[in-house]
Amino acid sequence: MKRIFQNVLVAALVMLVAVPVFSQEKTIKRKVAIGRFTNETQYGKGLFYDKENDPMRKQALDILSSKLAQSGKFILLEREDLDVLVAEAGSNMNKIGADYIILGSITQYGRKNEGHEQVFSSTKTQTVEAGVSVRLVEAATGLIIYSDEAKGYAETTSKQTLGIGGTAGFDATLSDKAISAALSQLVENIINKCMDKPWRSYLLAEDAGSYIISGGAAQGLSVGDKFNVYRKGRKVTNPQTGIEIELPGTLVGVVTVQTMVGDTPETEISFCSYSGQDLDENHLDNYYILDE
């Protein structure tokens, strides 16, 4: 019996050692431009209200940026002038320099105080409710690929007994907590939508036999990485919706990263070798790159 147990143990160890170790899948960070978060509620909007300095709007923008940054999957481009950039880009949303654009608004905000008095004690509960709406736009197509709304709640309770205990006024941190709770329900979906699709880049120029593409080390690119090059498909218009749709592209070749330069994520580029069908160097905007 002892020998049988030893044989079984040895066989199990051999199988364990023989299990191949797979390297972690490479993740290329997506560039996300966070546009204006608007405050659509009437809370705090007095006679001298300045929408550009709305504190709730800035709260929502900061909280969303923080949550996306914590995922480690994005390079965040805060673009307060996003409306101007979109207008200048026209149909070519790629000029914005992002893979995705997030637009959001605070759609609901309310706060209330509730108290309960007893003979020797009293309690006070402060509650804040916030509603947040977001839209995720794919820059390559200009289409909204995700839109949703969520509500968040936050409350705190103070208690006094025989006059001893907290008597603080309204807890301002409740606004942050309620907005954060609402955004937390949306962030996971935003991340999944952004990461579901292959990373896309573009041929910027040809230089002495090398092709320059957007993206670099900050996004997760490495020397030796290979990416497929596609010729864009023709565009057709859906008669039911009036929306212009780009048909799937045609695989024409492969680029291999040779060197990378750039000081910031926005300015990083990579020099690549190319193999495949001849490219029309006068119309490199007719091609795109995918990491699949």
Descriptive terms for the model:
single chain; 292 residues; alpha+beta; Rossmann fold; Thrombin, subunit H; 2 domains; 7-stranded antiparallel beta sheet; 6-stranded mixed beta sheet; 15 strands; elongated
Q: What's the rounded overall pLDDT mean?
A: 79
What fold name goes in the CATH topology slot of the largest domain?
Answer: Rossmann fold
Which second-level CATH architecture of the largest domain applies?
3-Layer(aba) Sandwich
Widest sheet: strand ordering? 7-15-10-13-14-9-8
For the report, how would you describe the main beta sheet? 7 strands, antiparallel
Q: Please identify the structural class as seen in this structure.
A: alpha+beta
User: Percent of residues in helical segments?
Assistant: 10-25%
Overall geometry comes to: elongated
Cα radius of gyration in angstroms: 27 Å
CATH superfamily of the largest domain: ABC-type transport auxiliary lipoprotein component
Q: Give the ordered list of helices and strands.
A: HEHEHEEEEHEEEEEEEEE
What is the C-level CATH assignment of the largest domain?
A: Alpha Beta
Beta-strand percentage range:
35-45%
N-end to C-end Cα span: 53 Å
List the total number of helices. Answer: 4
